[in-house]
Amino acid sequence: MNGENMKLEIRNLHVSAEGKEIIKGLSLDINEGEFHVLMGPNGSGKTTLGKAIMGHPKLKITEGDMLVDGKSILNMKTDDRAKLGIFLLFQNPIEVDGIGFANFLHSANGAMHGNTVTTSDFLKEFKETSEKLKFSGNMAQRSLNAGFSGGEKKKGEVLQMAILKPKIAILDEPDSGLDVDAIKIVAENVNEIAKRNNTGILLITHYSRILNYMKPVFTHVMINGRIVANGGAEIIKAVESHGYEAFTK
Ligand SMILES: Nc1ncnc2c1ncn2[C@@H]1O[C@H](COP(=O)(O)OP(=O)(O)O)[C@@H](O)[C@H]1O
Ligand SMILES: [Mg+2]
After folding, report:
1. Which of 163, 246, 173, 168 lies closest to 207 in space, CA to CA?
2. Which fold has domain 7-247?
3. Closest residue (by CA) to atom 5 of ligand 1?
4. Residue 96 — pLDDT band, cuts 50, 70, 90?
5. Distance in angstroms (rounded) separating the CA atoms of residues 120 and 156
6. What's this model's pTM, rounded to 2 decimal places?
């Protein structure tokens, strides 16, 4: 670990939406280069946590704090959090008609990294990564996510992760809606991209299937807005054999 690694600290976070408390005092630290998995049943608040980290406008932080390198990000806009190097791969990516995928990504890359990447380098990386993901060539010209299948949307998000090189990436159910072949491709590419860029990962999943291809070091179990267990691979085994029942008090 050197002093330049980004650190995201979540301290006693409470999050409400429409007057309902969803996250009820959650603490979690993620450092650049670390691989975490957050497991939990449907409705436990996992997606809300990812959105709260990105600063979703509909969510209200009622207590607690989130810090990057010791500084609170609570008053930062989503764009500025992204520029710090935090990235969220959505469970259900939105469709934006009229914005070409490659154009969008080229602008996003410029916004994040300035003019340090030339257009030809961008296009080269876009093409190489698309090929690794088996993301067909004409996707680049199509509108962002419009009419993409579930698998194509997820691959598109992984392509964004490859190009944007965030320091910490939150992957919300990257396997949802994918067939087995696509899960393997997505998982292997995320592994490779994260290794290459020393990306910290918070993998969110309610189902352990993707963990056949991804090996997180830190495991957390979230139930009803709280983390109820922290540990390593033994926790994944416990979830696989006994479900989440064993973690409910
Ligand atoms: N914008 C919202 N307004 C009201 N309730 C919400 C909102 N977003 C999420 N919730 C509720 O918060 C709970 C947690 O949802 P979510 O974070 O999507 O869980 P998970 O991703 O673990 O399945 C659910 O009961 C859900 O209905
Ligand atoms: Mg969810």
Report:
1. 173
2. Rossmann fold (3.40.50)
3. 17
4. low
5. 20
6. 0.92
Ligand closest to Cα of 222 equals 1
Can you give the residue ranges of every domain in the chain?
7-247
Mutate to test the pocket of ligand 1, among 16, 21, 22 (most ligand atoms within 8 A of CB): 22
Distance 47 CA to ligand 2 centre (A): 4
87 membership: H or E segment, kind and range: strand 86-89
Atom of ligand 1 nearest to the CA of 42: 23
Determine which of 71-80, 148-157, 163-172, 204-213 has the lowest per-residue pLDDT on average: 148-157
